[in-house]
Amino acid sequence: MELVHLKEINSTNDYVKKHMQELKNLTFVYSDRQTSGRGRLTRKWIDSGEDNLFLTIVIKPKESEFEHISNYTQYLSVILAMVLEEEYNLSPQIKWPNDVLINGKKIAGILAEGTTIGGEFLGLALGIGVNLNTSSDNLSKIDKPATSIFNETEKKVDKVIFLEKLYSKFCLLYDSFVCEGFLSIKEHYIKRAMFLKKPVSVNVLGVVHDGIAEDITNEGSLILKEKNELNIYYIGDIL
What we know:
The chain is α+β, with helices and mostly antiparallel strands. Helices cover about 25% and strands about 35% of the residues.
């Protein structure tokens, strides 16, 4: 288990991108405090205390694995959902593309950022923040519905044990994922996809599309029925 433990950092993703060349593949970099965490669409990820998880995974795919690079966040969302189910008896749901929710409230944020030098791709910083022990008082300060494992179970979560469980599950299914991509996790993803067959609004590069979420492709894209037309969206977020 390759671990880098930091006491405080502006962003674990920024740290990984800066040190990508010397970090090994599948190194887990985590920090007790994160002062400038961020999520998708430039959202800020609130530091809710050192009893929570601020983590970035170093991904250095081979050239033959590049075609699956956009699916790493979905892979991580499935892995997290499995850990929450198997270890904490929770019932997580996934909102396309990679938000993990409990009872309709967000428990984690995931953000992947690539690193290049001179046009050469060095690797992917696969970041995740998980609310492990955030209190209800601190959750109420977040501008969108949010929850934590402690808030759902009333049991304190040991961060190191949680990290070990996440690492173990991530590595267990990793070889299948890098070979097959989203198809290797599609069944697990669909099982937890709370948005399917429902009306949704999808933000695609600032343009909002309304329709029915019909299905997910073998590549992890969203099939949206808009009026009488099926459209496939490769990027975006369900609002």
